[in-house]
């Protein structure tokens, strides 16, 4: 496979939610995400929606197939979304907002052994969201 135009590639996740309309409103309230596109389906759900937060974007849809959800082992399901923020204060603020919206706390805000200040919460459908100061691809100052 050719590596042409790799610099223009972007990465976007997608999620199937059992209650996609409710998830949109919850993600707006809990994390401050902005819904930039929303296409309802004919069953009261969402056929396609897009959310943004700074330079981060993802899509979601109504899960009509009943996809399996991952099982948590110890303190994680083994995957989730990581959102890089500018500073510790922003991480703390997002954590407080998420907890106020009834997110499940997995990690309270704290520094990791590699210098990332981060927190992790689960949304009402069990998806894990980590917010931290580490930016993958940029060396950490020790």
From TrEMBL:
Domain VOC: 9-134
Annotated Pfam families: Glyoxalase
InterPro entries from the UniProt entry: Glyas_Bleomycin-R_OHBP_Dase, Glyas_Fos-R_dOase_dom, VOC_core
PANTHER family: BNAUNNG04460D PROTEIN-RELATED, VOC DOMAIN-CONTAINING PROTEIN
UniProt-recorded name of the protein: Glyoxalase
Lineage: Bacteria, Bacillati, Actinomycetota, Actinomycetes, Propionibacteriales
């Amino acid at each position: 496979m050719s590596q042409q135009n790799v610099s223009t590639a972007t990465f976007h996740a997608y999620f199937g939610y059992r209650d996609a309309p409710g998830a949109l409103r919850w993600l707006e309230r809990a994390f401050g995400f902005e819904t930039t596109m929303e296409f309802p389906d004919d069953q009261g759900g969402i056929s396609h929606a897009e959310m943004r937060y700074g330079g981060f974007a993802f899509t979601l849809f109504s899960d009509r197939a009943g996809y399996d959800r991952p099982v948590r082992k110890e303190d994680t399901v083994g995957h989730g979304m990581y959102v890089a923020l500018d500073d510790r204060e922003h991480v703390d603020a997002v954590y407080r907002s998420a907890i106020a919206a009834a997110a499940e706390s997995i990690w309270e805000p704290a520094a990791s052994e590699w210098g990332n200040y981060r927190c992790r919460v689960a949304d009402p459908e069990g998806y894990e969201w980590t917010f931290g100061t580490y930016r993958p691809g940029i060396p950490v100052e020790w």
